[in-house]
Specification:
The chain is of the alpha+beta class and 213 residues long. The protein is built from three helices and twelve strands. A twelve-stranded mixed β-sheet has the order 7-8-9-10-11-1-2-3-4-5-6-12. Strand 5 and strand 6 form a beta hairpin. It starts with a helix and ends in a 14-residue tail after the last helix. Residues 4-11 and 13-17 have low confidence and may be disordered.
């Protein structure tokens, strides 16, 4: 009987450990309006963060879809682009994780029951403000910016457009297809951008095998 109870205890501990994946749903903000169409979905545990879209998870996208996979121990952000033919390519960025320097503000706000702090920065002459929390054991953001601070629950650009967290859930596992890519599958940044750029155009052969006078 004691052995049975001990085994049950170990199973419970294992289940608790497996349940430390968080799923955060972000909606788009436009002024005072919240747009719920095609929300950003972030999955995160203590080692990895995935930034994607609902349409990508449902395989309903039509144009090239870019997602981010953050390897937290190495602080490397892998960007994954999936084309219309569902071919995927990867790039790696080791400088983006904590590239932006934030200034802490005194503003505080409660979002989804979490205490958040305000921080600001500037990117390409755009004023960026975030509200982030350190109450969760993960790193997450709707767009990589501020991800080193903790969990960004609200993001605004120039005081107007942005994203806000609408729901935080705990789930058992990451969705499939978001493993850290092997190094031989990672393209250099110039090749990656070139492939993404070319994927936005449709090549139509004109005068194929025709004689032109």
């Amino acid at each position: 009987m004691k052995n049975f109870l001990f085994i049950c205890f170990l199973i419970c501990l294992a289940n608790i450990g497996q349940a430390q994946v968080y799923k955060i749903t972000y909606h788009t903000i436009r002024g005072d309006q919240v747009v719920e169409t095609n929300p950003i979905i972030v999955f995160a545990d203590k080692n990895k963060t995935v930034i994607t879209r609902e349409s990508i998870l449902n395989n309903n996208f039509r144009q090239t879809a870019e997602q981010s996979i953050v390897d937290l121990p190495s602080k490397v952000i892998y960007r994954k682009s999936t084309f219309q033919n569902r071919k995927s390519i990867y790039s790696a960025d080791s400088s983006a994780f904590d590239r932006n320097i934030f200034t802490e503000a005194n503003d505080r706000k409660i979002i989804l029951g979490r205490n958040t702090k305000k921080a600001t920065t500037s990117i390409n002459s755009n004023a960026i403000e975030i509200f982030y929390t350190e109450e969760l054991p993960i790193k997450a953001s709707p767009n990589e910016i501020g991800i080193a601070k903790g969990v960004v629950l609200e993001y605004r650009r120039n005081g107007n457009s942005g994203f806000i967290a609408a729901k935080i859930e705990q789930i058992k596992n990451f969705p499939t297809g978001f493993e850290i890519p092997k190094q031989d599958h990672v393209l250099d940044i110039l090749t990656y951008r070139d492939e993404v750029w070319k994927s936005k155009f449709i090549q139509v052969p004109i005068f194929s095998q025709e004689k032109i006078c």
